[in-house]
Input
Amino acid sequence: MSLAGLDATRKPASLKPDDVNSLLAAFSQVRLPSPPTDCLSPIEDLLIKKGLSKAIDSRFVSTVTREPRVTNGNPFQVEVGLIFGGDLPGDQPIQILRFANRVPLMYQQGGCLLTKALESVDWKRYGLDHPGGRGIPKGPAAVLIHLASTNVQFTSEAKEALSDNVDVFDEIRLAMLEVGRGLRNHLKKQKQKAKAQEKFELVNIILPEIHDKAISILDAEPVPLSPVITKIMNAVFIEDVLEWDKETKETRATIQLYNYTARPRAYTLLSTWPERDGVQISENERGGRREAKGLWAWKLETLDPGKSTTLTFTVSGLKKGDWSDIEIFFRGAGDIIGATKLDEEILAEMLREEEAGLERELDEDVESDGDDDAESAEELVVDDQNTSEEPEGSEQSDWFGLGGDEQ
Output
C-alpha cells in the first residue's frame, strides 16, 4: 500500500479507478519469493536424447531443458527435443510427441498449448518446409515437448491437451527457437561437408590427370600431389568400408583417414561393431581398447599434413549381411568429414548402464548358487536321516548301491 501511495486503513469500496491502477502497478513491482522448484521431475537432456535416438535412427538430436519458472504461483519447467533425418518422411508434417509430467498426451493435438507454441515458430528459417509460416511444418523431423509442473492446466477433465498460458507458451517458444538454431547449424555443417566431399572427389580425379598430361607434354619428372591437394582442400576426411570375406567367413572393416590441412593432427578414433555372444574381433593389428559395449577405440599417431593412415580390423562370428553399417566417432580438435565428435556424456551413461547390468547378472548368479547350495544341503540332511534310521542287522549296500550277497 505504501508503494502505491495509499493509506492502509482505507476501505476497498472507497478506492477510485486511479487508486486501483496504482495498486496494480505496485503489485508488479513487488518481488515475492519464488516457490521451490526441486519438486519438479524433468526427463533431462540425456534421457530425451537417448529415447529419441533409440526410436528413430538419426545422427542429429538436439535437446533443451529450460530453467524452472513460475506462473500463477506454480513452478514449471519446459523441455524440448528435436531429432532430424533417419527414416522419417520428408514430405509429411513432422511428428509431435507431447508430454505432461512424463505422461504422453495422445489426443486433441491441434487444441493443445504445446502444439500452438510449436506452430508459432517460423521453421522455414531453420531448414524445415513451413508454407506461410502457419500450421505444423513438414520435414524428416520429430519434436518432443515436455511440461513438468505442480499444477498442469488441462483443457478438460480428460487431460488430453493443455490450456492456454502466456508464461508457459513463451517458455516453450524460446526452447523451440533454441533447438531450431541447433538444427540450422547442423544442416549448414552437413551442406558444407557435402560440398567439401564433392570438391575432394573432383580434385582427386582431375588433378592426377592434369599432372600426368603435363609431365608427358613437358617430359618432366612426376611431382608429389599431396601438398597441392592440402592447399586446395584444407580439411580432414575419413572413409569407411565393410567387406565380407567369403573364404574366412569374416567381415573386414577398413577406415582411412586423410589429413589435407596445413598442420599435423592427432585423433582418437572410435568405431561401432556388433558386440554380442559368439561375435569377436579376430584381427586388430593396431590394438586399441574397448570403450563400451559395441564401441572400440584406437589412439592414432600424429598425422602430418598431406598424409593418410589406414586402420583395419576383422570381426568373426557373423553371417553375410549381419553387419552392414558402421559409425565412426572421434576425439580431437576440429572436425572430420565423415565422422561424428564423441558425446562423452552419452558414453558415460552407456558405461553406467553396462556396469549396472553386470551387477544384476552377478547378483542373479549368486542367488542361483545359493539356491543350489541350499538344495545340496537339504539332500545331504535327508541322506543322513535315512542312514541313521537304518535298523541294526540290515544288509549293507556295496559301492554300487546293491545289497551285499550272503556268503
User: Anything to note?
Assistant: Residues 77 and 152 are 11 Å apart (CA to CA). The two ends are 119 Å apart (CA to CA). The longest strand covers residues 74-84.
